[in-house]
Amino acid sequence: MHPPFPSIHGLRYWRFTSGLRAFLKEPITLEQSRQMIEQRLENRERNLLTILERAVYENKNSPFNCSAS
């Protein structure tokens, strides 16, 4: 018997495939891709800290959140 709601994996797959279609509709140039990579490298540290903040410190259920106990 299937659960009444789609699994989180099904939702992630759906979001990925719908985002992929949109991404592939508008190809980017070599110069645009270089600029994107350069920007991401410049913001690498900030992006990592943002991910940690959301996934660990703001997530009460994270096993790595020391303030949860």
List keywords for this structure.
69 residues; mainly alpha; 3 helices; 65% helix
The average pLDDT score comes to 85
Structural class: mainly alpha
The unreliable regions are none
Morphology call: flat
Distance linking N and C termini: 37 Å
Quote the beta fraction.
under 5%
Largest sheet: none
Percent in helix? 55-70%
**Strand/helix succession:** HHH
* Counted beta strands: 0
Q: How big is the Rg?
A: 18 Å
How would you classify the quaternary structure? single chain
Q: How many DSSP H or I helices?
A: 3
Describe this structure in words.
By secondary structure, the protein is mainly α. 65% of the residues lie in helices and 0% in strands. The chain starts with 7 loop residues before the first helix and ends in a 12-residue tail after the last helix. It has a domain at 27-60.
Helices, strands, pairings?
Layout: H1 8-25, H2 30-42, H3 44-57
Summarize the structure.
With 69 residues, this protein is mainly α. The protein is 65% helix and 0% strand.
